[in-house]
């Protein structure tokens, strides 16, 4: 089901992707981050659903459906480097900064910072072309939330 999307993202010349595919790909990054510490916690799943519900204006069922598609896409996607670089070419900068903020939300969902998650957020920020300053500001915004 996602082979065509992955081919478009990771081909020699990545093609722009439509809104639904962009949502799937960006949500797959959230899933990849949540799975990075080998503990895909219920708090992380709930946080992902909340993030994509708010970001895309989805109801609870639609958010869960998108996350389920993203879980499958994430499991089929190539390494994080190729996958993330491909997304960089298909998504505007301001949306990529929003993705980094969402990644921080997931990384901090369980109340603490994990080395694997921290490292993945830093890697993804770099690969998405998001500056260290913008990533740090995104984390600070998330830290300040109740």
TrEMBL record:
Query: What InterPro entries has UniProt attached to this entry?
Result: DjlA_N (IPR007791), TerB-like (IPR029024)
Instruction: List the signal peptide residues.
Output: none
Where is each Co-chaperone DjlA N-terminal domain found?
24-140
Know the name of this protein? Tellurite resistance protein TerB
- Source organism of this protein record: Roseovarius halotolerans
